[in-house]
């Protein structure tokens, strides 16, 4: 399997596949409460069969070109994911998401990984608009959107019911011309 370096610290980005369900479950178990602050997946990924089904769904999305799931590894250990929750190549739109276990937080891993995914989506797949949804309380996720030069488009007020509470969700996006201009300016 291939892996793409995320920098000098040895972190890597690589695909996650159904045969890695045990590794995904171990990762979720290490960070279940932390990951679950704003993300319902830890409640869904509660056992090996659920993890295998989740990974199978993303393998099918990859095969149909409607989504992708990648693992973030440090020292060979799965510590997080970044993914295209949706991808519509014909419309030129995609939505990104992520999660990390606590030991991996605050190291810039998501920002570096998402930068690679947006580059690929824009340059290789012709995606025009990449979206990033984040709970308004999820300061680290919003910081990723800001670091990547995304534009805050608005707030979907109380649109996400999670753990008995309604959460505001912020929508951030970047358009292909903006992305290319920013990448050129960064070089």
Describe the structure.
There is one protein chain. This protein is α+β, with helices and mostly antiparallel strands and 187 residues long. Helices cover 38% and strands 34% of the residues. It has six helices and eight strands, in the order E-E-H-H-H-E-E-E-H-E-H-E-E-H. It has helices spanning 21-35, 41-44, 48-64, 109-123, 139-147, 176-186, and strands at 4-5, 12-15, 68-74, 77-88, 93-100, 129-135, 151-162, 165-175. An eight-stranded mixed sheet has the order 1-2-3-4-5-6-8-7, with helices on both faces. Helix 1 crosses helix 3 (48-64).
> How can the largest sheet be summarized?
8 strands, mixed
Strand order of the largest sheet: 1-2-3-4-5-6-8-7
Tally of extended strands?
8
Order of helices and strands: EEHHHEEEHEHEEH
Mean pLDDT: 94
Beta fraction: 25-35%
Label the overall shape. globular
Unreliable runs: none
